[in-house]
Request: fold
Amino acid sequence: MTNQKQNNRGKIERGSVRQKILDALQTCGPMTRAEIERECGLPKTSAAASVAKMLRPNTQRSKRPKLIYVHDWVRVDSISGHEFPRRVYAIGDKPNKPKPCLKAVQKERNARYWQRRKMVKQGAGASIFHFAMSQAKGGHKDVIEQFSKNCELAA
Reply:
């Protein structure tokens, strides 16, 4: 086992997780926590706890400086279309970059909301039925005829 220390119960100790994170940040450069988890192969809880501990200086015991800092913020677009601000971590004892102002983000979010609402009011994407009608090759009359034939066959 290189780079991993195990205690008598077989669990990986925190020092090795910390070292994995530092090695990944050194080789790959600044990364988000999710990228750190993927790169190091760590579970979410272990990576989150270690990153939170490394962000704070240890002034009680060894008076060591903090090991990582918030280098930047990125907005990650999830599958649902919502954007979430995420921290990007880097190695060093520099001051954390403050979280970006939410006013610009909120303006963009409101613009998207009103655009979707406007489209629904106009009838575009109002329902699955309208979507199916718009996608049918022969128009809505063919769709209705096919539906009625299928209903007759099923009865």
Remarks:
- The domain at 1-99 is CATH 1.10.10.10 (Arc Repressor Mutant, subunit A).
- The radius of gyration is 26 Å.
